[in-house]
Design goal:
By secondary structure, the protein is mainly α. 73% of the residues lie in helices and 4% in strands. The strands form four sheets. A two-stranded antiparallel sheet has the order 1-8.
Length: 459
């Protein structure tokens, strides 16, 4: 939100100016490549160039749609007194995982040859291949979130926050969000060894997410109680300093981030609704932050609805481009989705986490990545699976294609588990994320990209 504390990075105007120029360049590239592809429809180079610029524009649209959604969600989280680690794992995770959810739905609908998606006269994807693309998107996004988001946050902080160039990770993020993600992964991987997926998987994943939410609700209640006691202690002090606020919060087991300290200071002064009293204004940024919308509960809910609609349209476009690339290169859509759809749909997660880290909210930055992954597996897979079974006349989704296992699925299962274990080990070491560790994580993701490339070539 615009209410965030200033960072050590470049001034907002220069950053937003660069984003606008990049968007303009992508739009011009999209127009030019569209003209090229129209003149040479059989040209692989022209079609791939058009697809690249389409993906770039889709990522920007998703980013701009999810930005106000995230701002509104964070505002509501502050109003509800939700701790940063819980907010990152729930509200922020939902805000940034909407693309994966809609992409999963559209892949399933496309595969079932729904009339609103499949072009006339074309058979569409096999049902299993369509849900396989959903699995690839969610699993690929999970790998991206788990590895690249902490890596990008670590690199950004190392280069911009010179006073503290590392990210400190609260143990709760590892023991709660990280290990819970492992549990969800193990359940998913176990089911993927079967030849068919039924509603049982969806029911178990939804149940796991329900238990996870109860766990978070208990943590949030403990946090609110501790915060109330800390506020009562601070109210006995006349104009407490930031240091006193930090000490009071820390003494009651609360991670005192800069944004939380500032919010508590405003709460003690009673000027949360006084927009003229400080430079701190609760607002949602739109169009690269050029437009600031003052937030109120009713406005926040409206932004959530509007952003969701725009994200859905962008994800439908993303599915069409993903299938188009697979068709052009004559490779399984699974391998395109695991990189292209996963990366494009993870743009909001990346920017949201980097923004949280620059505000000093290290817990929110890392927990958002794991919370998004839990949401991706439990919700973004289970709901499209239910929709696919319903459209398949209640029959399970077959993971076999022409009687053979889906290409790339077993390798994805192995990589997903092994990379998760390695990443958790890296983050658990001293509970710090340094520049060196961030570069190691980037190397791990390159291994994952290598798997997808080799798989698409038939190895």
């Amino acid at each position: 939100m615009s209410a965030s504390a200033p960072s050590d990075s470049h001034p907002p105007d220069s950053r937003f100016g660069l984003a606008v120029w990049v968007t303009a360049a992508c739009f011009l590239g999209l127009c030019a490549s569209y003209g090229w592809a129209s003149q040479a429809p059989a040209s692989v180079a022209a079609n791939l160039t058009l697809a690249v610029f389409q993906i770039a524009m889709i990522s920007i649209v998703i980013w701009q749609a999810c930005d106000p959604f995230a701002d509104a969600a964070q505002y509501l989280g502050e109003q509800w007194r939700i701790p940063s680690s819980v907010r990152g794992a729930t509200l922020d995770a939902v805000a940034s995982s909407l693309p994966e959810l809609f992409t999963g739905f559209f892949f399933v609908l496309y595969a079932m040859n729904a009339s609103v998606l499949a072009p006339p006269g074309e058979p569409g994807l096999h049902a299993g291949e369509g849900f396989g693309a959903t699995i690839a998107t969610c699993a690929g996004s999970a790998v991206y979130n788990m590895i690249l988001i902490p890596a990008f946050c670590g690199i950004a902080i190392a280069l911009t926050r010179h006073r503290k160039p590392i990210i400190e990770i609260h143990r709760t993020v590892i023991t709660r969000d990280g290990l819970w993600f492992m549990v969800c992964e193990i359940v998913l991987v176990a089911f993927l060894f079967s030849k068919q997926l039924s509603w049982h998987l969806a029911a178990i994943l939804l149940g796991l997410y329900g238990v996870y939410l109860v766990w978070l609700w208990i943590d949030a209640r403990k946090y609110r109680n501790a915060r109330s006691v800390a506020i009562e202690t601070l109210q006995s002090i006349d104009k407490p300093s930031d240091q006193q606020i930090q000490s009071a919060l820390t003494d009651h087991g609360i991670n005192a981030t800069p944004s939380l300290i500032d919010y508590v200071a405003r709460e003690l002064r009673g000027d949360l609704d006084d927009e003229d009293g400080d430079d701190y204004v609760d607002s949602a940024g739109m169009l690269f932050g050029r437009i600031q919308i003052p937030l109120r509960p009713s406005i926040s809910y409206s932004l959530l609805v509007g952003s969701t609609a725009i994200t859905a349209i962008a994800c439908y476009w993303l599915v069409e481009v993903t299938v188009s690339i697979a068709t052009t290169l004559d490779i399984p859509v699974f391998f395109v989705a695991v990189i292209v759809a996963a990366a494009a749909s993870s743009v909001p997660d990346t920017l949201l986490s980097i923004g949280a880290a620059k505000r000093g909210d290290d817990d929110g930055a890392v927990s958002n990545a794991f919370g998004s992954n839990i949401f991706d597996i439990c919700i973004c897979l289970s709901l499209p699976l239910i929709a696919g079974i319903f459209l398949n006349n209640g029959q399970p989704i077959d993971l076999l294609i022409d009687g053979k296992p889906m290409p790339g699925l077993f390798g994805l299962q192995v990589l997903l588990l092994s990379l998760t274990v390695i990443t958790l080990a890296i983050l658990s070491h001293r509970l710090q994320l340094t520049l060196r560790k961030s570069l190691v994580l980037v190397g791990l993701y390159l291994v994952f990209i290598g798997y997808a490339v080799l798989g698409s070539l038939g190895f």
